[in-house]
Amino acid sequence: MALFPSDFTWGVACASYQCEGGWNADGKGPNIWDDFCHRVGGSPVKNNDNGDVACDSYHRYPEDIALMKQHNIRAYRFSISWARVMPDGDGALNEAGLAYYDDLVNRLLENGIEPMVTLYHWDLPSALQYRGGWLNREIVDIFARYADVIARRFKGRVRRYMTINEPQCIALGYYTDVMAPGWRCPDEDIARLFHNIALAHSAAQRAIKAVDPGTLVGLVPCGRLCYPQEDTPENRESAYRACFDLTGRWAFNFNIILDSVVLRRYDESAPEAVRKFAATIPESDWAAMEAPDFIGVNVYNGTMVDAEGRDVDCYPGFQRTACKWAITPEVMHFGPLFLYRRYGLPLIISENGLSCNDIIFRDGQVHDPKRIDFLHRYLTELSRAIAEGAPVKGYLQWSFLDNFEWANGYDERFGIIYVDYPTLRRIPKDSARWYAQVIATNGESLKA
Ligand code: NOJ
After folding, report:
1. How many Å lie between the centroid of ligand 1 and the Cα of residue 58?
2. Residues 84, 124: contact at Cβ < 8 Å?
3. What are the tens digits of pLDDT across the range 280-304?
C-alpha cells in the first residue's frame, strides 16, 4: 500500500525574519525582531545575533529556488515580512517590498514550486507594537487590511495561505523575554491576546476569500501534543484527554486557539483568568470566528503520558536534538489523529525538522545522518496517521536553509542546506539528497 496519497504536497518552510536579511533595504520598516535584536545594551538573543543579514535570501532567492528545484521541492512555505510591504503595518505600501515577493512567487511558479504564504510569522511592524501589538483589539481590522493587500496582489498565484504562525509563541513574547517584544503581562492579558489573534485570523480569512474565493486558508498553532506510553485503546483515550487539557501550561496548548476558531468556545479545563476574560466576550465575537480550511501543524516533539494521562518524564540521556528537545517520532502518529478527531479539519504538517550542530567534513560535504534518521522516523509515523484516517495533505520540512533560530541565534542548524554564514555559501547536506529521493518516490523510499 502507498504510504502517502498521490496528491500529497512535499515541501520546505521558512520565515522572513529567519532567512531574508535586508532588514532595512528598499524602504522596509522596522519590526519587533529588529528592535529586540538591536536592543541597546545587548539583546536576550544568544551571542547578540540578529537577522540583519541572516541567509540573505532577500538577495539570493534565485539561487535558493534553483536549489529547491534541484532537490525536487514541490512547495515552499515562506512568510511575508509585514513591515517590508507596509512599513508602518497599516496604510502606505512599500512597492519595492511587494515587488520582491512578486518576483519570488513568480519564480517559484516558473519552477513548478507552489508558493504557500504565511502572513504573520512573528515580525510585527514596530509601529503596531507601539500601539499595543496583539493586545490592541484594533489589530483585528488592521491585519485584515494587510491580508486584503496581499490577497489582491497574489490573486490567482497563491492558492494556500496560512494566516498566523504559532500564536502560542507570539504569546510567549508577552510573558517571557525569550521572544519579542519581551513584555511581561498577566494571564488575563494573555487570554485577550489569544482572543484578538483568533479574531484576526478570522477577519483575514474572510478578507482573502472575498478577494479570491478559491484559496484555502489555514492557521498554524503549536503546543503540547501527547502520545500513549503503551498503545492500547484506553491509553489513546487518556492521551487524547491529556492533549487538550488546559490545566497547567494552558497558553501552550493547541486548543487555546483552535477551540475558539473552530468550536467557538473555551475548554472547560480553562484556568480562572481565561474564564474571567471569556465572560466579557460578546456573542458577536463568537459569531465572527472562522474555522480555517486546514490546520497547519508544526510538529517537533510530544509528551509521553501513562495510562492515567500523566506525563512520563524522559529518562536522563534520552535522545535529544541540539536544542535539547526530546526526539519522539510517535507524536507524528498520534498528534494528527487527535487533532483530526477534535476538529474534523484537513491537516498540513507545516513544520518538522531537527536541529543539529552540523559541520563541514574533510571531504567538503555536510553529512547529517541524525537528521536523516529523524526525518525517516517521523515520516514513517506520519504515514501511520494517514493510514488510520488522518487527512494530512502535505508535509513541509523545517527548514530548507540553516537560519536564524530566534533567541538561539545561529547556534542551531535546522536546514537540509548548510549555510556557511561568513560567506553565505550554500552546501546541500546529505539529508537534502535523501529528502529529494523521498519526494521523487512519494515516500516509497522510506520503506527500504
Ligand atoms: C517553529 C517556528 O515556527 C519556527 O520559526 C522555528 O524556527 C521552529 N519552530 C524551530 O524552533
Report:
1. 19
2. no
3. 999 999 999 999 999 999 999 999 9
- Side-chain-side CA neighbours of 154 within 13 Å: the count stands at 33
Cβ-count burial 202-235 (b if 16+ within 10 Å, e if not): bbbbbbbbebbeebbbbbbbbbbbbbbbeeeeeb
How far away, in angstroms, is 71 Cα from ligand 1 center? 22
132: region left, alpha or beta (phi > 0 left; psi from -120 to 50 alpha): left
> Ligand 1 within 6 A of 79 CB?
no
Q: What's the CA gap between 9 and 115, in Å, rounded?
A: 12
Strands (E), 180-258: 216-220, 226-228
pLDDT tens-digit series, residues 124-174: 999 999 999 999 999 999 999 999 999 999 999 999 999 999 999 999 999
Residue 302 grid coordinates:
510530544
**Of the candidates 223, 236, 229, 225, which has an alpha carbon nearest to the alpha carbon of residue 305?**
229
Determine whether 78 is exposed, middle or buried from the number of CB atoms within 10 Å of its CB (0-12, 13-18, 19+): buried
Rg (CA), the chain: 21
CB of 331 within 6 A of ligand 1: the answer is: no
In sequence order, the 6+-apart residues with CB closer than 8 A to the CB of 278 are 191, 266, 270
Query: Domains of the chain by range and CATH?
Result: 9-447 (3.20.20.80)
Phi, psi of 365 (to 5 degrees): -105, 165
Which residue's alpha carbon is nearest to atom 1 within ligand 1? 298
**What grid cell was written down for 168?**
502560542
pLDDT, averaged across the chain = 98
- Nine-digit cell string for 267: 475548554
Within the chain, what is the greatest distance between any pair of CA atoms? 64
Instruction: Quote the pTM value.
Output: 0.98
What the block records as the C-alpha cell of 338 is: 487527535
Nearest atom of ligand 1 to the alpha carbon of 414? 10
Spacing, Cα 284 to ligand 1 middle (Å): 34
Best residue among 299, 331, 405 to mutate for probing ligand 1's pocket (most ligand atoms within 8 Å of CB) is: 405
